[in-house]
Amino acid sequence: MLTKLAELIGADPGELPEIEITGIQGIKEAQRGEISFLTNRRYLPHLAECRASAVIVPRDRVATEGGPTRLEVENPQVALINVMHLFHPDGRRPGQGIHPSATVSPAAEIGEAVSIEAGAVVEAGARIGDRAIIRSGAYVGEGARIGHDTLVYPNAVIRERVEIGDRVVVHAGAVIGADGFGFAQNGRVQEKIPQVGRVLIGDDVEIGANSTIDRATLGETIIGSGSKIDNLVQIGHNVKMGKNTIVCAQVGISGSATLGDNVLIGGQAGIIGHVRIGDGAMVAARSAVTRSIPDGVCVLGAPARPHREGKRTLAWIARLPKIAARLRAVERRLDSAQQAS
User: Fold this and answer.
1) Is 46 a catalytic residue?
2) pTM check: above 0.70
3) Which of 171, 237, 274, 307 is catalytic?
4) Which CATH number fits the domain that encloses residue 32?
5) Does any domain span residue 323?
6) Looking at the domain assignment, is residue 319 inside a domain?
7) Residue 121's pLDDT band (boundaries 50, 70, 90)?
8) In this structure, are 145 and 32 located in the same domain?
């Protein structure tokens, strides 16, 4: 019933219609009997026409009239998460045991209620925490550690001596612990620098599909607890990433860069090595970071500049065709004046 759902998400349940809610959909797709949500104000024009039986909205911030019953909450995104868990419970099934076609070394340490699916490989000395799930075709290298309640999706590769914390999600095709990209020129030959360090992943981290996190040359590459890494991200050797940092798709972070806590890196941004991005800093999409960024500063552009300066630069770049046309017109007038004289 709608009243119970309102109580679940912290909305006022008083005087709500007794409606049975059967599912959740987007504001443009939802139908009667379903609940929807408004987490982005650009969808506000669709609210009045929404067919859902109820919509989760931010408290005291929606002034439009009409439309379905509204459940006002402080944080619609958090409320949305709770509702989605209600209608789409976690499909993980730990405790299924080791599939007959999995290859698990007798020297590996396997916790309680673990699932290791068909074709997965767990090498000697690896430790798999309680209730962890290793999906089909995944590889866990020698001496690696997988924490409790961690989920490794199919064909992910966890190389030797990598340590992954609790409640981590590693999506399909990710590679953690590949060699860092290190070579030294010896005459006309590029000699490989041995990459003998490790990767340490904190708790509650999510690593997107086909992302790569290279092992350190020496020491550790570190991903702090609570950080979220999107698909197709490359993180170089010896990178140190703080807690609760967000890295969007197709970002490249060069070796030995340091990211603080609560940093946000937009999609396709590039970060050179050995720079520091301070706590709470933001890097706009497709920016090129070539120098360190202080705490709390937002940058954009290539090379990346503070937000206001970067916007002015982009504005001037957009004006260049008109400026060039005006200069050509001035040149033509000057040429005509010289010819006339």
Assistant:
1) no
2) yes
3) 237
4) 3.40.1390.10
5) no
6) no
7) very high
8) no
